[in-house]
């Protein structure tokens, strides 16, 4: 027995050394396959706040030149001043991607800024929360115009340039809401489903043509976006459930971590990224068990979400926030901190 133990020790030690060496080699190979992004020109829609701003910060630190597109001039100015202060070359364009007439303006101004675009990140989005009873066709049209048509029109405008340049990238920020239709988020989910389909089909068509497409389906991120979202129906109750979901750890993810994962996937040239384990598991579960998923969503609608309410008044999170109780403000502290840090 002792002889056997003595003989086995060198074998075990050798095996462990071999495993360690193999792991180290795999890490080195993986790192060597990461593309450097320094010098790339990146256009980000919705780039003045939230995830768009955090992506701009991290890409800027990696040596990228940035073109930020957003509707609000003051938000763009704050974002640009912050980035310029740390030496990031940045150009801003105040425009609304939901307006078809603004797309040629975005295209021409972006190319004038740095002469080319290497990476297009379609990130602009809006969130409307409330039961279907309180919604009108215009709510769906507005969501589609920003998150679907805004993505499609911007992509089509820049696609000839990206194809001509070669070695280019398109990153489409969709959502787990584009894989699972969450109740009380119907305009958002409908637009994100459409954007996800466009992005996945685009990836297949452009493969091997010099333009790589990454489809990102995040779960809830702590950006403080619940303050910018719009609420209908029983507005206070709708605001509370959504704000808590978009803030509490375990349900939502820190936006800095989310942006870092997106950039890592961009550098690896992944084709799809689902952010958070909850989103990954949820998407796979929905694809495998669609009937059961539907039943669970029905239970969520009945037992967790506010009761149907036909009130069609639209209120922003910022308008509703002041009237919320002290405990709610404490529970959403992380989301408020994120809002302050990300221009929300």
CATH architectural designation:
3-Layer(aba) Sandwich
Number of strand segments: 12
Mean pLDDT across all amino acids: 91
What's the alpha carbon Rg, rounded to whole Å?
Answer: 23 Å
Strand content: 5-15%
Q: Output the helix-strand order.
A: HEHEHEHEEHEHEEEHEHEHHEHHH
- What's the helix count? 13
Helical coverage, percent range: 55-70%
Question: What order do the helices and strands come in, and which of them pair?
Answer:
Elements: H1 2-32, E1 41-45, H2 50-61, E2 65-70, H3 73-85, E3 90-94, H4 102-114, E4 119-122, E5 128-129, H5 137-165, E6 168-173, H6 186-206, E7 211-218, E8 221-222, E9 230-231, H7 235-245, E10 253-254, H8 255-268, E11 272-275, H9 277-288, H10 290-303, E12 315-316, H11 317-321, H12 326-331, H13 333-341
Parallel strand pairs: 1-2, 1-4, 2-3, 4-6, 5-9, 6-7, 7-11, 8-10
Antiparallel strand pairs: 9-12
What does this entry look like structurally?
55% of the residues lie in helices and 14% in strands. It is an alpha/beta fold and 344 residues long. It has a single domain (35-341), classed as NAD(P)-binding Rossmann-like Domain (Rossmann fold). The strands form 3 sheets. A 7-stranded parallel β-sheet has the order 3-2-1-4-6-7-11, sandwiched between helices. The chain has a 3-stranded mixed β-sheet with strand order 5-9-12. α6 links the parallel β6 (168-173) and β7 (211-218). α4 runs parallel beside α5. The longest helix has 31 residues, at 2-32. The N and C termini lie far apart (69 Å).
């Amino acid at each position: 027995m002792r002889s056997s133990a003595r003989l086995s020790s060198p074998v075990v030690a050798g095996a462990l050394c071999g495993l360690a060496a193999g792991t180290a080699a795999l890490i080195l190979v993986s790192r060597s396959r990461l593309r450097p992004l320094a010098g790339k020109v990146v256009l980000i829609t919705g780039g003045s706040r939230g995830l768009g701003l955090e992506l701009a910060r991290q890409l800027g630190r990696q040596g990228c030149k940035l073109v930020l597109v957003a509707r609000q001039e003051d938000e763009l100015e704050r974002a640009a001043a912050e980035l310029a202060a740390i030496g990031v070359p940045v150009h801003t364009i105040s425009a609304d991607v939901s307006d078809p007439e603004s797309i040629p303006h975005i295209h021409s101004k972006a190319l004038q800024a740095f002469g080319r675009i290497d990476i297009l990140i379609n990130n602009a989005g809006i969130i409307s929360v409330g039961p279907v009873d309180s919604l009108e066709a215009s709510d769906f049209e507005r969501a589609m115009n920003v998150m679907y048509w805004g993505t499609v029109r911007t992509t089509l405008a820049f696609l000839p340039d990206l194809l001509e340049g070669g070695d280019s990238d398109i990153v489409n920020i969709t959502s787990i809401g584009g894989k699972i239709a969450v109740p009380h988020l119907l305009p958002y989910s409908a637009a994100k489903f459409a954007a996800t389909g466009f992005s996945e089909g685009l990836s297949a068509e452009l493969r091997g043509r010099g333009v790589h497409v990454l489809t990102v389906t995040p779960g809830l991120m702590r950006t403080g976006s619940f303050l910018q979202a719009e609420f209908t129906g029983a507005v206070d109750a709708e605001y509370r459930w959504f704000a808590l979901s978009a803030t509490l750890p375990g349900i939502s993810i820190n936006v800095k971590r989310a942006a870092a994962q997106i950039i890592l996937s961009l550098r690896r040239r992944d084709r799809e990224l689902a952010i958070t384990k909850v989103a990954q598991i949820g998407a796979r579960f929905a694809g495998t068990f669609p009937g059961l998923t539907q039943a669970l969503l029905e239970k969520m609608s009945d037992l967790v979400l506010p009761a149907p309410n036909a009130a069609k008044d639209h209120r922003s999170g910022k308008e509703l926030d002041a009237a919320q109780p002290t405990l709610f403000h404490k529970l959403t502290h992380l989301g408020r901190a994120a809002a302050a840090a990300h221009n929300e």
